[in-house]
Amino acid sequence: MKKMLILSIFMLSAAFANTNKYTDKVVSLYLNKNDTKVQGRLLPTNPFTIVKTEGDKVLLRISGYVNPAAPSVLYFNNKQRIIVAAFSKNAPLKFKSRAKGSANNWGKATIEVWADKQEFANNNKEMLARAKTLYMENCGMCHAVHKENEFTANQWPAQFRAMADRTGISKDDRWLVIEYLQKNARDFKKGK
Ligand code: HEC
To answer: 87: which strand partners?
Structure first.
């Protein structure tokens, strides 16, 4: 009995370690645990895992695709500019792994970076639903709301930003809505 309990606790914690987490807000990233200088940002709705917690910091493992021409950005798939995490241009990034990739087939990469300890969500369904509501309620006030699939994933950020100041969407929620729009864009694919 006791053995089974220990075993199931062990299995449970192992499962937790690999569970995807999500944020609905932009999260500041640090390259080292004791850094005070923010070197990157993790954007809403993208999956990541928690490697460990130390004091008031958490080590996050983030995966994405890297365009060899712009190696300080992790993208959601291998060809669209849907940002998962973006770092300062000259940040000395140490990737855990990084496939070479090319200009039109970016390479898969994984990095571990630190963030302030905070609550993260276990899925992105609710935040995506909130993004949709924000979009529908704010972007259909003056004209008919534009369909998500009217634009490509690469076109949406500029289309959204050109209009965002005309809406009541708070600055904190803008990346959430952009990610929602990109992930429902005409040409959105998961990539490979
Ligand atoms: C306060 C009124 C208002 C709100 C709110 C508004 N728009 Fe617009 N939108 C306009 C007007 C007016 C135009 C016509 C072109 C212009 O004024 O730039 C326009 C044009 C557009 C166009 C067409 C641009 C083009 O190149 O033809 C798109 C796409 C668009 N809006 C998207 C959005 C999105 C997305 C939101 C929410 C973030 C939004 N709008 C919120 C007033 C608004």
So the answer is: 40
Mutate to test the pocket of ligand 1, among 163, 170, 179 (most ligand atoms within 8 A of CB): 163
135 CA closest ligand 1 atom index:
37
- What pTM was computed for the model? 0.91
Nearest 5°: the CA angle 160, 162, 90 is: 80
| CA distances, 136 to each of 33, 67, 175, 180 (Å) | 40, 32, 15, 12
Q: Of 112, 155, 183, which Cα lies nearest the Cα of 191?
A: 183
Quote the number of domains for the chain: 2
Domain end call among 70, 96, 116: 116
Tell me, in angstroms, the distance from the centre of ligand 1 to residue 149's CA: 16
For atom 41 of ligand 1, which residue has the closest CA?
A: 139
Cβ of 117 closer than 6 Å to ligand 1, yes or no, is no
The pLDDT score that the predictor gives to residue 192 is: 44
Tokens 């709705």 belong to which residue?
A: 45
The answer on 60 and 35 residing in a single domain is yes
The mean pLDDT values, 10 residues at a time, for the chain of 192 residues are 60 65 98 97 98 98 96 96 97 96 96 98 98 98 97 98 98 98 92 48
